[in-house]
Amino acid sequence: MDATADIDELQRVLDLRRLDTPGIGGEEHNFQGWNQPKPGDVLFGGQVLSQCVVATSATVADDRPIHSFHGYFLRAGSVFSDLTFGVDVLRDGGSFSARRVQAYQDGQPIFTGMASFQRDEEGLDYQDTMPADVPAPEELPSLTEQLAHIDHPLLEGWVFKRPFEIRGVEPAIQARFQGEQKASEMFWVKTVAPFGHDRVLNAAALAYVSDYNLLEPTLRVHGIPWYTPQLRMASLDHAMWWHSPVDFDDWLLFDLTGPRSNNGRALGTGRVFSRDGRLIANVSQQGMLRLKPKS
């Protein structure tokens, strides 16, 4: 694996090109995005999320970092179709700014979202406590090490090429189920090579990686491996709240739960802590989850 190449690909995903024409929906700002190759030729939702963070941030003053984002996945995207992002300026107030973004392919919106930005300021300060007695990342095997002996196209073409190293507290369940059936899990994550300290890019990278595992606690509680042939999953909506700057050059802890699955849907929620115990973000996602009966 070439860690530098994987990081270069992430940087390319986040390097949008501003266009001189209005967005397809008449939006004031318009950006061209790059599609990351993926097995199955369907866009990774985290790619689109991260690019929406970059596109909306590019229309806001530098002293107003993103603090929340809410979006809906409308259609499956293709790695073969041009991808653009139209951004509307909704409001610039004394402290807060609001933006609407639509991602388009083939003249149709595939994703729609709203982002809010705020100047840093002093205020009441409280946070949840980081989980206690979590093994340090140095004590855990990487996801790649756990799965190295398994031959599967999604591993070689996707998981092993990720720009992030993941070290789970629970055993991996990609190819077969193992460990306890419970609706929770934790994992450490950081970039596979130095990423830098740009605040917008780190916030966008967190949006990217947050789409990896949010529904995995639901699979874990039901004892279902990812690569079950009858399993069908897709992200429906995604919400994030950034509480402080993100730094992917050090380990971050994701603490995930799957509080509800029913009606062909599953809800995943997560808290993200820095290594020194700061709660830096919260994230939630609902997805389609169907287990078709064996024929």
From TrEMBL:
Keywords assigned by UniProt, alphabetized: Hydrolase
Domain Acyl-CoA thioesterase 2 C-terminal: 170-288
GO CC aspect terms: cytosol
Name of protein: Acyl-CoA thioesterase II
Keyword Isomerase: no
Domain Acyl-CoA thioesterase-like N-terminal HotDog: 39-118
GO molecular function terms listed in the Swiss-Prot or TrEMBL record: fatty acyl-CoA hydrolase activity
Pfam family, one: Acyl_CoA_thio
Family under the similarity heading: Belongs to the C/M/P thioester hydrolase family.
Superkingdom classification of source: Bacteria
UniProt record, GO biological process: acyl-CoA metabolic process; fatty acid catabolic process
Cross-referenced Gene3D superfamilies: Acyl-CoA thioesterase, double hotdog domain
EC number: 3.1.2.-
